[in-house]
Design goal:
The protein has 181 residues and is an alpha/beta fold. The protein is built from four helices and nine strands, in the order E-H-E-H-E-E-E-H-E-E-E-E-H. The protein has a six-stranded mixed sheet. A three-stranded antiparallel sheet has the order 1-9-8. The longest helix has 19 residues. It is globular. Bound molecules: inosinic acid (IMP) and magnesium ion (MG).
Length: 181
């Protein structure tokens, strides 16, 4: 397979991502079938994983999206900036947050607090990638994790560096020379 010249190491090929995603979808179907969950995708990084996951979820579900960023101020929790909010009320609903990668966990901590306040019945997280060594807050344990990676900067399959590389159909470690210019 031909890999982009900005990539130093391939982490997951497209075929591997599909296999991983199918396994996650099986677990999710077992847990949520009949509950009509709302899959909440965290833009923009979630897009490819979100679409892949949905394809393999043979059950009733709804989808919605949020685009948030966390403002890393002086507090350890950070402050949530909502660029795009959910379009529907989530009171009494089962929410499954779909994310590309969990690193510090700061963004998701803010989102979890917000969705709890809004009265969701349950909230869980599914993430394609987890970087547990990067965690800076407690209590962020995604229930469904596709693949655990070391503390390296990765791109592709929705993940970007400076808005580039989201379209790569695989996940790879970005060459340091790309961001140390
Ligand atoms: P957090 O640090 O857990 O709040 O991560 C928030 C977001 O940062 C993730 O959802 C990604 O969009 C982005 N991010 C974290 N690590 C990486 C990476 O290695 N590559 C690209 N984006 C990343
Ligand atoms: Mg993200």
């Amino acid at each position: 397979m031909k890999v982009h010249s900005a990539i130093e190491e391939l982490i997951l090929s497209y075929d591997e991502i599909v296999e991983i995603t199918k396994k996650l979808a099986n677990q999710i179907k077992n847990d949520y079938d009949g509950k009509r969950p709302i899959l909440v995708g965290m833009l923009k990084g979630c897009v490819m994983f979100f679409a892949e996951l949905m394809k393999h979820l043979d059950m009733d579900l709804e989808i919605d999206f949020m685009d948030v960023s966390s403002y890393h101020g002086t507090t350890s929790t950070g402050k949530l900036i909502i660029n795009k909010d959910l379009s529907r009320d989530i009171t009494g609903r089962h929410i499954l947050i779909v994310d590309d990668i969990v690193d510090t966990g700061i963004t998701l901590q803010g989102v979890l607090e917000l969705l709890k306040e809004r009265g969701a019945t349950s909230i869980e997280i599914v993430t394609l990638l987890d970087k547990p060594e990067g965690r800076k807050v407690e209590g962020i344990y995604p229930k469904y994790i596709g693949h655990t990676i070391p503390k390296k900067f990765v791109v592709g399959f929705g993940l970007d560096y400076d808005e580039l590389y989201r379209n790569l159909p695989y996940i790879g470690v970005l060459k340091r020379s790309v961001y140390e210019k």
